[in-house]
Write a structure and sequence with these properties.
With about 725 residues, the chain is of the alpha/beta class. The chain is about 25% helix and about 20% strand. It has 19 helices and 23 strands. A 6-stranded antiparallel β-sheet has the order 8-7-10-5-6-9, covered by helices on one side. Strands 15-16-17-18-20-23 form a 6-stranded mixed β-sheet, sandwiched between helices. Helix 11 packs parallel to helix 12.
Length: about 725
């Protein structure tokens, strides 16, 4: 190191670090170390490769300070920190004869290629991005750098899940959050803040624990989650020690209060892809996220909302008595999950480890890269400050001896995004018809299709997939039951009213992104409105290109009645009806009927309730009769036009656009078809209706209950 220069020093923020060991396990040069208090970076060894930054669940690792190289913070100094030091002032650099301007951001060095005989470090292959079909993960909603430092939970249950009489004491703990939101996904974790102080008199830092319950709670529909906690009574060298957080948690009683931070983790997530196969490998309490993923799949299957993806579990422990959830695992159907146990301390039997069980299931000669390749989930025993405890999704499954796995991929097969829609959906139904129509139906009739964060995420994902699907030309948005949409789910909004600013901001951005996804969709979109369209339901209708309403439909921009405002839907409302009418609707929150909605431009057509589908079908047929590329160009051009004078730039834009489109293959086909008095090659075949041929409980309309490989109905071929 040149002592006469400025160093851009890599540091770890001790305030938000949760001591998960991911950074130390990932660092390829051994520059990260720790003691009982802090994780730190050795400036003499760090080569700024940045390999440790993406896997960090909290962002604590991504901190930097410009310092004179001669005064770089030592490992000893960092181990004593409770917070990062302030940036050095000019005087500190002047004293060393170094100018602060000499500092430059660290550049990522090329990752060193491992030698052929180098030891395999699994953490180096951890995922830095989630599966493409995974749900959106919220992170760092609560913590030292968040608007609210901790969230208080109430213990709703604490039961031992290993046999009494054995040293391996593991507990299943349920935490209830009441009205306060803590959205978590399978594969995420939270931090528990033990009460009291350590031997130095400082408050205990949070300990990280994986969530063991599905996204809709340990008890479905309740704002709770569960953890799997092993009581720690010795350290890694076998010396007696009483784990601070584990013993605190295992000794909790129902009704006790617990301080929580998080959630953490945005890459180790469960794919929602309906045909994704998941291989799960774990030992001991590392089974927590695997239990969450398995239970979520089980609930989807029981409700008829999932079919196709397979689960395989390799689960290791010393004995069956020390295996968490051993009894419930035995009761899962064999056609649902393929379970492989490995026990290393059963008296009278040879020691068998997880890798032995995996080799026994190997299928030699099977080529990698086949359709339906699995996601591989690895989870070691324990969590928190154990070496190698960082979660990793292995992209080199072949090294583990899984001949059928090959490299983990995220497309899980060769089908298009349209074909994989959408068996895992909870709140929507997607149906497709010959000719290019896709129908997206909000399927929460029990709450009048009110939307929450789940529906928002699914609408965003579905419209993104349909926009990219070349077989889809027109998208209809509709609602199940008596109403189009009652807007925001009131329970969701109540949770939001008690949530910190960070959570509310992330949530509002997701809603805004979903509406923008619909409004900017390159395919024509049509809202079929019946019954009530309230609040955000009006926003959905305004975001679509065309809105057709039943004559008994009612509309209201009702947010002000709840003490809030139609902020996110506001731009789409103003675009639809103009600023003065939008103000009237928002300020009075009054209801208007379909006739008035038509008069002010909120909808484009009103049809008798019994003739609503016929009116929608007519409009769909009109759209399908037009050139698909022409419709895309129309949407793109009109998004750039505004009411007002036609300027030189506008005239040039329109001239350039028509000149380009006139010479396209689609334009030549359109003129040729007209002059030949025949239908253009994009037209819907005669006799094929615009409406989907069949309904489905969820996912693609034509998907059979148990589809055979490469088999589809006539509608989908």
């Amino acid at each position: 190191m040149d002592m006469a220069t400025t160093l851009h020093q890599h540091l770890i923020d001790p305030e938000i670090c949760i001591r998960c060991n991911t950074c130390e396990a990932t660092c390829p040069v051994g520059a990260i170390t720790h003691d009982t208090r802090n994780y730190v970076v050795d400036a003499a060894r760090c080569d700024h490769c940045l390999a440790c930054v993406p896997p960090c669940p909290t962002g604590a690792i991504d901190n930097w300070r410009d310092v004179p190289a001669a005064r770089a913070y030592t490992v000893g100094e960092q181990l004593g920190w409770d917070e990062l030091p302030a940036e050095l002032g000019p005087d500190a650099f002047d004293a060393e004869g170094v100018a602060p301007a000499d500092a430059a951001p660290a550049q990522a060095a090329a990752a060193p290629s491992p030698a052929a005989d180098a030891p395999f470090v699994g953490a180096a292959y951890g995922a830095t991005v989630p599966p493409w079909s995974a749900a959106h993960a919220y992170t760092n909603l609560y913590g030292p750098k968040s608007a609210q430092r901790t969230l208080t939970a109430t213990v709703a249950g604490n039961v031992r899940v290993t046999d009494v009489g054995h040293d391996y004491d593991t507990h299943h703990i349920v935490l209830d959050f009441g009205a306060m939101p803590l959205p978590v996904l399978e594969g995420q974790s939270i931090g528990i803040v033990p009460p009291g102080v350590d031997a130095t008199g400082r408050a205990h830092h949070p300990r990280q624990y994986s969530v063991a319950s599905p996204r809709n709670g340990e008890r479905p529909g309740y704002n709770n989650l569960s953890l799997t906690v092993k009581r720690v009574l010795d350290d890694h060298d076998g010396r007696p020690v009483r784990g601070v957080a584990s013993n605190y948690l295992c000794d909790l009683r129902v009704g006790d209060r617990v301080e929580v931070v998080g959630p953490f983790g945005a890459s180790f997530l469960m794919p929602n892809h309906p045909r994704s196969h998941i291989v799960m490998i774990c030992t001991g309490t590392g089974s927590a996220p695997m239990r969450a993923m398995t239970e979520w799949r089980r609930r989807l299957r029981r409700s008829g909302k999932f079919d196709g993806g397979k689960l395989m579990l390799f689960f290791g422990a010393r004995t069956p008595q020390e295996l968490p959830y051993f009894g419930p695992l035995q009761n899962l159907p064999k056609d649902f999950i393929d379970i492989n146990f490995a026990f290393s301390r059963v008296p009278g039997q040879p020691r068998r480890y997880v890798q032995d069980a995996m080799r026994a299931r190997r299928r030699p000669g099977r080529a990698a890269g086949r359709r339906g390749q699995p996601f591989l989930r690895l989870r070691p025993q324990g969590h928190g400050r154990r070496r190698g405890a960082g979660a990793a999704r292995c992209r080199h499954a072949g090294r583990a001896g899984l001949g059928g796995a090959g490299e983990c991929v995220e497309n899980a097969g060769s089908t298009s995004s349209g074909d994989v829609l959408m068996d895992g959906l909870q709140t929507l139904r997607v149906e497709r018809a010959a000719g290019g129509l896709a129908r997206v139906t909000m399927a929460r009739a029990q709450v009048h299709n009110a939307f929450d964060e789940v529906m928002i995420g699914e609408l965003d994902r579905v419209f993104a997939a349909l926009a990219d699907d070349p077989a889809v030309r027109v998208i209809v948005l509709a609602g199940d039951g008596r109403h189009f949409s009652a807007g925001a789910d009131l329970q969701w909004m109540q949770r939001a009213s008690s949530a910190p600013l960070d959570w509310n901001l992330a949530d509002a951005r997701s809603f805004a992104a979903m509406l923008a996804r619909i409004a900017t969709c390159p395919k024509p979109t049509l809202a079929r409105v019946h019954g009530a369209a309230l609040g955000g339901g009006v926003g959905l209708a305004c975001a679509c290109d065309i809105a057709i309403a039943a004559d008994d439909a009612r509309f209201a921009v009702s947010e002000a009645k709840f003490g809030i405002l139609p902020s996110v839907i506001g731009p789409y409302l103003v675009n639809a009806v103009g600023p003065r009418q939008a103000r009237r609707l928002a300020l009075t929150a009054s209801r208007i009927d379909a006739a008035e909605a038509l008069a002010i431009g909120l909808v484009h057509q009103v049809a008798p309730a019994e003739g609503l589908d016929a009116a929608v079908d007519t409009s769909v047929r009109d759209l399908l009769a037009c050139g698909p590329q022409a419709l895309r160009e129309i949407k793109q051009l009109f998004d750039q036009l505004e009411v007002g004078p036609v300027t030189d730039s506008v005239r040039e834009l329109t001239a350039q656009t028509i000149a380009r489109v006139r010479g396209s293959d689609e334009a030549r086909e359109g003129f040729a078809a007209f002059l030949s008095r025949r239908a253009a090659n994009w037209s819907t075949p005669a006799g094929s209706g615009a409406r989907p041929a069949a309904a489905s409980t969820t996912g693609a309309a034509c998907a059979p209950a148990n589809p055979a490989p490469k088999s589809r109905c006539s509608t989908c071929r």
